[in-house]
Design goal:
Length: about 100
């Protein structure tokens, strides 16, 4: 069970959400198998935005992911042309 969550909210227009879902699908397994402390990753879609909820064993591991090569060189690059605004990033401690 996750003890911390990283929530990334993305403003992506509806026609481009399929491309965003492809980025999510492409990097879900590498995230779960290669990022320290990663325990889950879910894609949440609403009319107004898309959210990716990442589960971790600790807040420190969630923060470290944001500096990882997978996030900065793969995920960010894959999403940059789809975003209508900068992402909203939040880390939560879970009890």
């Amino acid at each position: 069970m996750a003890k911390a969550y990283l929530q990334i909210t993305l403003k992506i227009n509806a026609p481009e959400r399929e491309a965003a879902a492809k980025v999510y699908s492409t990097y879900k397994e590498p995230f779960l198998s290669g990022i320290a402390g990663a325990v889950s990753k879910e894609l949440l879609i609403r009319d107004e935005d898309v959210q990716v909820l990442h589960g971790f064993n600790s807040e420190d591991e969630a923060s470290a992911y944001l500096e990882s090569d997978l996030f900065t060189n793969d995920v960010v690059v894959g999403l940059k042309d789809l975003l209508q605004a900068g992402p909203e990033i939040r880390i939560y401690d879970a009890f």
